[in-house]
Amino acid sequence: MVSYPNTHPPGDVIVVQPGEFQVKKPRDPCLQEPLWGWMCPEQRVTPARKMSSSVQLFRDQKYHELKGQCLQQGRLFEDPEFPASDESLYYEPAAKGKVEWKRPKDAVSISGVESPAMSGLLCQDLCEDPHLLVDGMSSHDFHQGKLGNCWFVAACSCLALRKSLWQQVIPDCKEQEWDPKSPRKYTGIFRFRFWRFGQWTEVVVDDLLPTENGELIYCHSNVRNEFWSALLEKAYAKLAGSYQALDGGCAAEALVDFTGALADSINLAEGKYGEVIPEQMKLFEDLMKVHKRGGFISCSISESSGRPSEAETEMGLIVGHAYSVTAIRKLRLGERLVFSFKAQKLFMIRLRNPWGKKEWHGAWSDSSEEWKKVSDSERKDLGLTVENDGEFWMTFEDWCKNFTDVDICRTVNTSFFSLHKTWEKEMMYGAWAKHPEPLLNRSGGCFDNRETFLQNPQYLFDVKKAEDKVLVSLQQEDRRKYKKEGKGDNITIGFEILKVEDNRRYRLHKLTVQERVATSPYSNTRSVFLRSTLQQGRYVLVPTTYTPGVPTKFILRLYTDVPSKLRELKADRPKMTCWSLLCGYPRRVTQIKVHSAEGLQKQDRSGGADPYVLIKCENQSWRSRVQHDTTSPVFNTQVIFYKKDMDSPVTIQVRQPQGSCSGQGGQHCSIPGLHWATFPLSDGTLGSQGMFHSKALKEFTEFLLPHVVPDERETKRSQVLSRVWNSSLLRDQLLGQAVLAASPGEPREQQRLRLRGRGGGEAAEVPGHISVTVLSSDDLAEL
Known about the structure:
It is a single chain. The chain is an alpha+beta fold. It has 4 domains: 56-112 and 122-251, no CATH class; 263-410, Cathepsin B, Chain A; 424-569, Jelly Rolls, CATH 2.60.120.380; 581-777, Immunoglobulin-like. Strands 15, 16, 17, 18, 19, 20 and 21 form a 7-stranded antiparallel sheet that branches. It has a 6-stranded antiparallel sheet with strand order 9-14-10-11-12-13. It comes from Lamprotornis superbus.
């Protein structure tokens, strides 16, 4: 994710002079509204602490109540929480300048009496016929002003592409619009909504806007009497504490605030996307999917490329400047164009410069040779529209070679009613907080700080499928509001994902048998994102600051294919209750990891086996998944037990599910309550096969018997019921076991143990070995 420096157009601010009214463009054929079901990325939430679906009021200001008061008193609204003064413009006294605050329409109250608060401050209106929106909204509506917030303007360009989203940010547009037929209903109050820290927040502002020489000095529209962009910028500045607080930032931050989407970033230079064509094509397909499904994309050239901020490259691009992506197209060319371009497809991307000028000078630029090969009708058919307004096309290859960083905001589908993949979402609040007591400290720093790393907040979740893709977003609170105190910089954050014991319920205190399976990027951006594929099992996610002892708040969002039951681990050990006096309380904790087995006894005609491992301690047990058709299974199963009897041993058994053997009568896989069964008929053909519940399996067996030759019915009945049905009633076959004392003094390194039959350590040896790691401690908060 890229943080853009204080970039603004060199020289004087570009303003639209009176009379320079421009006709707005018709709807762009390249823009596609997302399919239904993608437009509410925050629809379903299932965290331990659920997010409220209601809208939060910033500074507790109620729009309708304030508007009603103004109507009753016959006055225009003046916001006491964000007054028309220097403190709303700057957080640094040295930055003050000569600014006049003006309303779009006039500077007098509804009653015709000049407002005392505005006396001497305003001299004239900005236009005669103001509107919130003129002919709707488009990405061409506005330009950046003096403020170095190209990142915010680029985000606004993206927002304008999705009507369903900007209508959420600007609620009830028609109700907020100026009405020339009822001027007395206008009170100069507007409201906007932003997704802030897990919740939609409504911000109220008045219509007083900062000007110099009668012109808006910050974000402004191409059309002189349109003010949605200026008012939206003011509401966003109010959230940040001042206009100056918006100087420098990241387009993804504003896009997340507009949509609640997930922010992702890609370094094109490090990924060598300009050189490796297969990776380039993968990225193109990914970005095209993001754009079609309602996501947003912006890009930039970093200063680390060797050029200073705001420098213009030889191809007309501006360093350190945020460009919004307004279209991505894969074009299949006709026969004539295939001959001209010597290619059957064109991979194209369209960008917009928030300054509204300075465009790309390379291939497919406005005056390039490429356009001369394409007729007007072909341009229309391909959707390659070109205007001289800061918007331009490039080939995707040139884009990868000339830009260095990409910010992506992905809208994640959580709707039940969708044609696309649906994700299960969990979202939780958290905080890094310092405490001198290690067990209470929650600000331990990144993984490099081994002594304190596990003193961070910890979140447990389950992956229930054999393999599942997960999306994780960690977002810190917005720190712009602290700029006045000199603490406005983002903190470097990231997170680790650890595969832990399958039955873990308490906090981790030491990394022993656990696996470090995924690490997010560490960045001083407001949010970090990771997409990963995880195997079935239990995981602990540890969000961290890079440096220990840095307190701040965060929200954590997790998306999986099936519910993950995300919850925070707060307890360090089992809770002691009044029942502990009667039933006993654990005195020892033991971790076991069964890595693998080898040389097991063959169980079927093909020379294989279907083993699983069963780990038992006192009245607790845990069973692994079945490993099919192998005598050297890899289990990688981890468990943790809290023992009341310190002398109670741990028994590790390798078993074969009874009924897993192949044969004429049937076979089944070991899934609790379910059986995979095949039923051959008397002629050797397959009668039926499928997954059956226990009761249904028995009934279906009886149903098939009449189709068997009469003199073979009893034989078939015996085979089917004993090998399939009765197998769930019989004990699974023991292939061997190992019994360990699991005391703290035993070796902590991985051990290779000989398997034995029943009877403990003196039992006869059986074929096979098992590799395990066992750790025990009498301190329940050590492991």
